[in-house]
Design a protein that fits this description.
By secondary structure, the chain is mainly alpha-helical. The protein is 65% helix and 0% strand. Helix 7 runs antiparallel to helix 8, helix 9 packs antiparallel against helix 15 and helix 14 runs parallel beside helix 18. The two termini are 32 Å apart.
């Protein structure tokens, strides 16, 4: 009985070494990603953070000034407090700050994975070697480390919130959720499920945390930035570029199939613009309602929390490769069969270079969204688990 556990530990340690080596290799690179966080923090410290940050040209020029390169980055569609994420690093130059950021994000990610593995082991539900390796070595993890995106930190916050909820420490879980909401507008679907479960202490703590962070930083920015933020997000989502297959979202899939654009999508499969702007929101809304109804009487907290994490990704309007590192949490919580793990693993691992970048015209674009399909399959696994648990509780 001990072999699977020991094997998973050995596999996890080997994977951690691989990630550490990759981090060392990536540390000296100059890429987009981290520089967006760093630039925003520098603007905050210098008292220049305001609505202009949502002007891509202006923000991109600041990035180039700080890095002395031709790198381009944008602040949109992030909320103003995103500028706090790399605030402790503004005393360093961009290169040194990137090194610290990568090391810290890897440590946070490995800590989150380790905590989830220990939770399962404590319940005598040891994770298989395949699942541990899938959590640690998906392309999403390497992409975060390669460009210095912030979703390894987001993973750590989600993992902390998950474990705190599972252990009944609702207020501390709410603090984690509040940080996710205010820093990245992530976790809104989790709020819906917490309402369904009547976990009011968590929701109150999340609301207080979000408001306190927002109020604390407002004196240091142009307050009108808060008024511009919603319209900046709306305009960002409405851009024709949101239809490109790099965005692994339900909205991108429907827009890519249905709406032509001479630059971003010259050969759609059909002319169905009305469907493209309605169907994705109906699907996400219906999925959220179904999940909330089933979550109300779920016997296992693991299942509804896993569903909340998956929906928190599916409901975002702009989701690319780095976001899918969060799928490691439902993989750790759900009781999946070997065939399910194999299919989901294939969808999470297949290089986007041979899917999203190759199948871009006509109906072939249906093959360009493997990460999206993996997320929807995990949601279906959550619904199956929630439905089964409800049936057993009724019996």
């Amino acid at each position: 009985m001990q072999r699977p556990r020991h094997g998973a530990i050995v596999a996890g340690a080997a994977a951690a070494i691989v990630l550490a080596a990759f981090t060392s290799f990536s540390a000296g690179s100059k890429t987009h990603g981290f520089i967006s966080y760093y630039t925003a923090s520098r603007l905050l410290v210098e008292g220049e953070l305001g609505p202009r940050a949502y002007n891509d040209r202006w923000f991109g020029a600041v990035v180039q000034r700080l890095t002395q390169t031709s790198l381009r980055e944008i602040f949109t569609p992030n909320p103003p407090p995103m500028a706090l994420m790399s605030l402790p690093l503004v005393g360093f130059g961009p290169e040194a700050a990137r090194v610290v950021w990568l090391v810290a994000s890897l440590a946070a990610f490995l800590g989150g994975v380790g905590a989830l593995v220990r939770y399962r082991a404590a319940r005598h539900l040891h994770l298989s070697i395949a699942v541990v390796l899938l959590m640690l070595l998906t392309p999403a993890v390497f992409t975060n480390l390669r460009i210095g995106q912030g979703y390894l930190f987001v993973f750590a916050l989600f993992a902390a919130m998950t474990l705190l909820l599972l252990h009944g420490r609702d207020r501390l879980a709410g603090i984690c959720l509040g940080l996710l909401l205010v820093l990245k507008t992530s976790g809104l679907a989790m709020c819906v499920l917490l309402i369904a479960r009547r976990r009011w202490p968590t929701l109150i703590a999340a609301a207080i945390t979000s408001v306190m962070v927002a109020l604390a930083m407002t004196p240091w920015i142009d307050p009108s930035m808060w008024l511009v933020y919603p319209s900046a997000v709306r305009d960002y989502v409405a851009r024709p570029a949101s239809a490109v297959t790099a965005y692994q979202t339900t909205l991108s899939l429907f827009r890519h199939l249905c709406i032509a654009d001479p630059q971003w999508n010259p050969e759609p499969a059909a002319n169905c613009a009305s469907i493209a702007f309605v169907a994705p929101y109906l699907l996400i809304g219906a999925a959220t309602i179904v999940t909330a109804l089933l979550a109300r009487r779920a016997a296992r907290a693991d299942d509804w929390i896993a569903a909340g994490v998956v929906l928190s990704v599916l409901s975002l309007p702009a989701v690319a490769e780095p976001h899918f590192v969060l799928m490691g949490i439902p993989l750790a919580l759900l009781r999946l069969s070997a065939p399910e793990i194999a299919v989901i693993a294939a969808l999470l691992i297949v290089p986007l270079e041979i899917t999203a970048e190759r199948f871009t015209t006509g109906w072939s674009a249906v093959l360009a969204y493997p990460r999206l399909y993996a997320a929807w399959l995990l949601w279906l696994a959550c619904i199956r688990a929630l439905s089964g648990a409800k049936m057993r509780s009724n019996l």
